Amino acid sequence: MEDLLNALASAPRGTGLAVIAVVLVAEAAFLVGMLLPGSTAALAAGWLAVDRGFPLPLVIAVVTAATVVGAHLSWWRGQHSDAPVKARGKVRTLLSKVFRGLRRHPVVAVAVAQCVAGTRTLTPRAAAAAGVPYRRFAVAQFAGAVVWASVLVTSGTTAANLMPPLDPDVYVAVPLVVGTVLLVLLAAKLVRRRRVAVTA
C-alpha cells in the first residue's frame, strides 16, 4: 500500500483533480451515482486548488464541466429509457406529478436540482422523459452547475486556508478510495445487468 501511495504521490499533480472530475461525471450520468459523494468531491477540489497551486477559476471550470457532461449523459439516457412507460401504480402517479412540475417550471426545477444530492442524477432523466425542451434544460443546468461549483469549490479553498495543512498522503488516499468505490459500484452494476440478461 505504501508503494502505491508513493507512486500516486509522484504522479502528475492533476491526477487528483482528474479523479474528482470522473466522479462528478459518474454521479450525474448513472443511477449508481446517487451513492457517490459529489458535493464532497467538489469541496475536495477546492482543497486541491490550495494544496496543488491550481488557479481557482480553473478548478471551478473543471468541476462545472464535469457535472455538466454527466447531466447531459443523464439527459440522453432519459430520452432512451422506457422506465416511465413501464411504471405502474403509485410510482406512475408520482412520476406524473414530477413531470407536470418540470413542464411548468423547467428552468427553476433543473437549476435548483443541480444543488441537491440525488436530484443531480434523477432530474436530467426526468426532464428528458417529461419533454422539457433541450435548450431550456441545457441553459438551466449550466447556470445551476456554475453556481453549485463556485460555492463548493470556494468553500473548499476557504477551509483549506483556515485549517492546518494535511499530510500529503491524504490528498493521494482520498482520490484513490473514491476511485476504487466508483469502480466497484460500476462493476456491480455490470454484473447485475449480465445476470438479468442471462435469466431473461
From TrEMBL:
Residues 36-157 form the VTT domain. Belongs to the DedA family. Signal peptide: none annotated. It holds the Pfam family VTT_dom. It is a multi-pass membrane protein. It is found in: Cell membrane. It comes from Klenkia taihuensis. The keyword Repeat does not apply. GO terms for cellular component: plasma membrane. This is Membrane-associated protein. Keywords: Cell membrane, Membrane, Transmembrane, Transmembrane helix. The chain crosses the membrane at residues 54-76, 142-164, 170-191. InterPro entries: DedA-like, VTT_dom.
